[in-house]
Automatic annotation (TrEMBL), chain A:
Pfam family, any one: SERTA
Primary gene name: Sertad1
Protein name as annotated: SERTA domain-containing protein 1
Region (Disordered), start-end ranges: 1-23
Domain SERTA: from-to ranges: 39-86
GO cellular component, one term: nucleus
A biological process term (GO) from this entry: positive regulation of transcription by RNA polymerase II
Stored InterPro entries: E2F-SERTA_domain_protein, SERTA_dom
Organism of derivation: Mesocricetus auratus (Golden hamster)
From TrEMBL, chain B:
Gene it is expressed from: Ppp2r2a
Species whose genome carries this gene: Mesocricetus auratus (Golden hamster)
Family, as annotated: Belongs to the phosphatase 2A regulatory subunit B family.
UniProt-recorded name of the protein: Serine/threonine-protein phosphatase 2A 55 kDa regulatory subunit B
Keyword annotations of the record: Repeat, WD repeat
SUPFAM superfamilies: WD40 repeat-like
A GO MF label: protein phosphatase regulator activity
C-alpha cells in the first residue's frame, strides 16, 4: 500500500496524473445532471473526490500530514451528512470489477476507513524504525493485511460507536450490505509486486479491490479484538 | 517614515525583478521563502533546489536620491542537498522551507535555514583584504627555499576584490520525525524553536546534539490524529513566550516558565465558526497557514485561506480585526478543493510600524490592508510595466455581475500564479514579493 521503495518525486508525478484525471462534471453548474442533482448526490460526488484524494495522499511515500488530516476530516463531515440519507453502493465482486472508478466508488466506504487506519498505523511506527523492530509484521503494507478467512462476520453487528477515532460511528452502516462472498476470493497482492494476471483490464488500479478486501480483513480483526498481525503472507505474494 | 500614510496613501513603484524571464519554470528555481534581515540591508531567498541567494542593498547615492538603493546579489550558496533516508527509503527534499536571520553581532552575518528535516546555521562573511609578503612563501603559495631568504619583511594586508563566503557553522539534525514548517529565533538570541507537524523543539544555537521537546501533540494512537501544527513563532520581546497555530484554526500561546513540556497552553485563540458560512470546507479554510507577531509584540496576525486576522494577545475569543483577502473565492471552494489550491499556504507580514499588513493571493496579486484607514489595495507583480519608478496600478477582481473595464473576473484568474511569500523591510517602505520563480522588489515613490 505504501510504496516506500519508490522515489517520491517520480511517484508523485505518476500519482498526480492518476489522481487528477477525475472527470469534474459535477462541478459544472450548467451540466444538466448537476443542476438537477439533489444535494445527496452532490455530497456523494464530493465524497468520491475526497476518497480519491485520500488514496492519492496515502500512496505518497511520505504523506503530507496536514493535507491528509484535512482531507480525512472533510471526509468525515461529508460522511456524516450523507447518512442516513444515501444508500450504500453495493460492493462489487472483484477481481472482475468493470472499471477503476466503479470499484473505487463501491469499495470506497469500506476501503476508506481501512486505508486511513492502516496508513496512520504505519505512521505510528515511523519513529520506531530506529528502535527494536516490532514483532508484528509492520515493515510494510503486505505483512499486516494478509490473512485467511476472517473471524466471525456476525461480530460486526455488535459494533458500537467508535471512540473518537477515524473508524467512525458510521461503521455499522458501512458494513450492513456487504456481500460476504468477497472474503472467499483471492488474497491481496501488494502493489509493489505488480499487477496480478487477470481480466483484460490494464488500468493501474486493478488491484484496488484486492487491496480493500485485505484491509477490510485487517479492519475486522481489529474490531473484533483479534490482532492477527503475525499471519504469514499468503499465496500470491 | 515607515508606514506613514498607510498602504493606500503610499504609491508603490516597481523597483526590480530577479529571476528567469521565461515562462518555463525550472522546478529548482521555485522560491520557497523570502526574508529581510534586521537592518533591511540584506534580503535572503530560499528555493526548491536548496539554494539561498542573498541580495544586498546598495548604499544610497546621495546625489541621485530619487530612489533607495537597489538590491544586488551578495552571496549564493547551496544550503541543503537532497538526502536519502535509508532507514525509511525516503527522499528528503532539499527545498528551503524557512530562513531566519540572527541580529548582527560582529562583521559577519548569520542566518538559519531549514528544509523538512535539518536546520543549518550559516555564517556569511566578507573578505576584502588578503595578506601579502610572506617570507617563506611565494605569492602563489609555493614554499621558498629558506636559504634564499636574505632579508625579512612584515606581511601586510592588501585590498582584494570583495569575496563573500558562506560557511555552515552548525547543523541541527535528527530531531524531527515530521516535516519542519517553522523556525523562530528567541529574543534572547541564544535559543530558537523549530516546529514540525506534531512537535516543537527548542535549541541552543551553540548545541547541535541536543534539543528540548516543548510541544508534542502526537496522539498515542495515530488513528486519532485530527490536527497538526502549521506554524510557530517566538514572541519578539518575551523570551519565554511563543505561539503555535493549527490546522483547525486555533492558536495556542505557551509560556515556557510554566512547565518543561508546554502541552498546556496559557491562552487559546479561536474564533467561533460563523454558522451562515458553514460548509464541508470550513475546516480546511480555517487552517492557519502563517502566524506573525507584530513588532510591538502586542498583536499577532494569522492567515487562513480567505482572510487575515489580527489578534490582541489579551483577547482570546475573537480577533480584533479581520480582512478579507479574496472573499470571491468562497463560492469556488469546491473547484479549489478539487485542484488542491485550497491547501495553498499563504504567508503574511507586517510593515515596520505595524500599521499595514500584506499577504499574497492568486494571479500574482498581493494585498495590503491599512489598519488605521481601513483601506486596502490589490497590486500585481508582473513584468509588464516594469520600468523603475512606474507606479503600480491598483487591481480589482469582479466577483459577479458586469465586469467593469480594467477589472478581472474571478474565472480569469490564474490559480497557478500564486504569491505565497512576501516580506516587508523592517524600517522602510520596501517590499519583496515572490511569484513562482521571480522576486519582485517594490518601493514607495520618493518625492
Amino acid at each position: 500500500m505504501l510504496s516506500k521503495g519508490l522515489k517520491r518525486k517520480r511517484e508523485e508525478e505518476e500519482e498526480k496524473e492518476e489522481g487528477l484525471s477525475v472527470d469534474s462534471w459535477w462541478l459544472d453548474q450548467s451540466h444538466p445532471a448537476v443542476s438537477q442533482t439533489p444535494p445527496a448526490a452532490a455530497s456523494s460526488s464530493l465524497f468520491d473526490l475526497s476518497v480519491l484524494k485520500l488514496h492519492h495522499s496515502l500512496r505518497q511515500s511520505e504523506p503530507d500530514l496536514r493535507h491528509l488530516v484535512l482531507v480525512v476530516n472533510t471526509l468525515r463531515r461529508i460522511q456524516a451528512s450523507m447518512e442516513p440519507a444515501t444508500a450504500l453502493p453495493p460492493v462489487p465482486t472483484p477481481p472482475t470489477a468493470p472499471s477503476v472508478a466503479d470499484s473505487l466508488l463501491a469499495s470506497s466506504d469500506a476501503g476508506l476507513s481501512a486505508s486511513m487506519a492502516s496508513l496512520l498505523e504505519d505512521l505510528n511506527h515511523i519513529e520506531d524504525l530506529n528502535q527494536v523492530p516490532e514483532p508484528q509484521a509492520d515493515e510494510g503494507p503486505p505483512g499486516r493485511s494478509v490473512g485467511g478467512v476472517p473471524a466471525n462476520l456476525g461480530a460486526l453487528d455488535l459494533l458500537g460507536p467508535a471512540t473518537g477515532c477515524l473508524l467512525d460511528d458510521g461503521l455499522e452502516g458501512l458494513f450492513e450490505d456487504i456481500d460476504t462472498s468477497m472474503y472467499d476470493s483471492e488474497l491481496w497482492v501488494p502493489a509493489s509486486e505488480g499487477l496480478k494476471p487477470g481480466p483484460e483490464n490494464g488500468l493501474a488500479k486493478e488491484q484496488t479491490p484486492e487491496l480493500d478486501e485485505a484491509e477490510l480483513d485487517y479492519l475486522m480483526d481489529v474490531l473484533v479484538g483479534t490482532q492477527a498481525l503475525e499471519r504469514p503472507p499468503g499465496p500470491g505474494r | 517614515m515607515a508606514g506613514a500614510g498607510g498602504g493606500n496613501d503610499i504609491q508603490w513603484c516597481f523597483s526590480q525583478v530577479k529571476g528567469a524571464v521565461d515562462d518555463d519554470v525550472a522546478e529548482a528555481d521555485i522560491i520557497s521563502t523570502v526574508e529581510f534581515n534586521y537592518s533591511g540591508e540584506l534580503l535572503a531567498t530560499g528555493d526548491k533546489g536548496g539554494r539561498v541567494v542573498i541580495f544586498q542593498q546598495e548604499q544610497e547615492n546621495k546625489i541621485q536620491s530619487h530612489s533607495r538603493g537597489e538590491y544586488n546579489v551578495y552571496s549564493t550558496f547551496q544550503s541543503h542537498e537532497p538526502e536519502f533516508d535509508y532507514l525509511k527509503s525516503l527522499e528528503i527534499e532539499e527545498k528551503i522551507n524557512k530562513i531566519r536571520w540572527l541580529p548582527q553581532k560582529n562583521a559577519a552575518q548569520f542566518l538559519l535555514s531549514t528544509n523538512d528535516k535539518t536546520i543549518k546555521l550559516w555564517k556569511i562573511s566578507e573578505r576584502d583584504k588578503r595578506p601579502e609578503g610572506y617570507n617563506l612563501k611565494e605569492e602563489d603559495g609555493r614554499y621558498r627555499d629558506p636559504t634564499t631568504v636574505t632579508t625579512l619583511r612584515v606581511p601586510v594586508f592588501r585590498p582584494m576584490d570583495l569575496m563573500v563566503e558562506a560557511s555552515p557553522r552548525r547543523i541541527f539534525a535528527n530531531a524531527h520525525t515530521y516535516h519542519i514548517n517553522s523556525i523562530s529565533i528567541n529574543s534572547d538570541y541564544e535559543t530558537y524553536l523549530s516546529a514540525d507537524d506534531l512537535r516543537i523543539n527548542l535549541w541552543h544555537l551553540e548545541i547541535t546534539d541536543r534539543s528540548f521537546n516543548i510541544v508534542d501533540i502526537k496522539p498515542a494512537n495515530m488513528e486519532e490524529l485530527t490536527e497538526v501544527i502549521t506554524a510557530a513563532e517566538f514572541h519578539p520581546n518575551s523570551c519565554n513566550t511563543f505561539v503555535y497555530s493549527s490546522s483547525k484554526g486555533t492558536i495556542r500561546l505557551c509560556d515556557m516558565r510554566a512547565a518543561a513540556l508546554c502541552d498546556r497552553h496559557s491562552k487559546l485563540f479561536e474564533e467561533p465558526e460563523d454558522p451562515s458560512n458553514r460548509s464541508f470546507f470550513s475546516e480546511i479554510i480555517s487552517s492557519i497557514s502563517d502566524v506573525k507577531f507584530s513588532h510591538s509584540g502586542r498583536y499577532m496576525m494569522t492567515r487562513d485561506y480567505l482572510s487575515v486576522k489580527i489578534w490582541d494577545l489579551n483577547m482570546e475569543n475573537r480577533p480584533v480585526e479581520t480582512y478579507q483577502v479574496h472573499e470571491y473565492l468562497r463560492s469556488k471552494l469546491c473547484s479549489l478543493y478539487e485542484n488542491d489550491c485550497i491547501f495553498d499556504k499563504f504567508e503574511c507580514c507586517w510593515n515596520g510600524s505595524d500599521s499595514v499588513v500584506m499577504t499574497g493571493s492568486y494571479n500574482n496579486f498581493f494585498r495590503m490592508f491599512d489598519r488605521n484607514t481601513k483601506r486596502d489595495i490589490t497590486l500585481e507583480a508582473s513584468r509588464e510595466n516594469n520600468k523603475p519608478r512606474t507606479v503600480l496600478k491598483p487591481r480589482k477582481v469582479c466577483a459577479s455581475g458586469k465586469r467593469k473595464k480594467d477589472e478581472i473576473s474571478v474565472d480569469s484568474l490564474d490559480f497557478n500564479k500564486k504569491i505565497l511569500h512576501t516580506a516587508w523591510h523592517p524600517k522602510e517602505n520596501i517590499i519583496a514579493v515572490a511569484t513562482t520563480n521571480n522576486l519582485y522588489i517594490f518601493q514607495d515613490k520618493v518625492n
